[in-house]
Design a protein that fits this description.
Elements: H1 4-51, H2 59-85, H3 90-110, H4 112-118, H5 121-166, H6 172-177
Helix pairs in contact: 1-2, 2-3, 3-5
Amino acid sequence: MQGKGPVGWRRLGVLWTRVELPIYVGIGITLVVAAFAALGEIWAYYILPWIWGRGALDVLEVLDKLLLISMLAEILQMVKISIGQRRLSSEPFLIVGLISVVRRILIITAEGTRIVNQASLEHFLALLVELAILAILLFVFVRGLHLLRQQRLEESRRLREERRSYGEAPTWAQLLQGE
């Protein structure tokens, strides 16, 4: 009975590995299709009518959709990293959050004049509170990215220093051969 436990876990691990890659590939393909569809929508509904003189260019809508596409691209980057390294990295998540916050701040501030003229005082105050929360989130995301990059830089410095001190580390094959 004791031998079945680890074998079962190994089989589950193998099964997981076989299922994981197609799922990530499917997610990646879906993200690519969604990004291209959003780009096509921008061109079909905003850029081409504006070029042909059939309508005004709604820059806010175009910017909003471009930032959404940028978020999709960052999520696609996360999927690519997950496939390549078989692990999740926190930096792309922070970047997606940062883009999302900037996107919402830009939309609120760009529509600010219309909102102030048409909205009630309660609605205006709610937007101010939302902007304050977004500003805090912006700070948190930027600080998180800064800390991650600083940590990575310190780790690479430490590794360089270790290489200088100890030389190149032996490979597993060299250790097993007794070199």
